[in-house]
């Protein structure tokens, strides 16, 4: 009976050892694959990005920003789109919270551009309105009835 227990123990230990070796091998292969993807992505990306309100530019180490995107009123910097064919693979690694944060960022950036456009238009309207008031006031000409404060 002791021989059977010893044999069973050796078989179990051997099975655990084989399973551990197989698992270590798979983990090693996965680690190498992730390292390969990381190195490959880094080799295709510029060293820095300059992100503006309506576009972005890329730059390599020691150079001035170049390769700029076209200006757009609906611009938001999308890092995943820069990875081209790898974006689907990378998207699979992102958690739900990160995806929600990226969507919130896109909405916020679109709102910021809209607020900027509205603010610029309101400022221009205020300047034209005040300039018109000053011209009528200094010229002692009665402002038109439709003009506010007239």
Key attributes of the depicted protein:
150 residues; mainly alpha; two-stranded antiparallel sheet
Architecture overview:
The chain has 150 residues and is mainly α. It is 62% helix and 5% strand. Among the domains are: 41-74, no CATH class; 78-140. It has helices at 2-44, 87-93, 96-138; strands spanning 48-51, 56-59. Strands 1-2 form a two-stranded antiparallel sheet.
Give me the count of strands.
2
Low-confidence residue ranges? none
How would you state the average pLDDT, rounded? 75
Number of helices: 3
Order of helices and strands: HEEHH
Task: Classify the secondary structure makeup into a structural class.
Answer: mainly alpha
Radius of gyration: 32 Å
* Helix content range: 55-70%
Beta-strand proportion? 5-15%
Measure the end-to-end span.
112 Å
The major sheet is characterized as: 2 strands, antiparallel
What's the overall geometry? elongated
Spatial strand sequence of the major β-sheet = 1-2
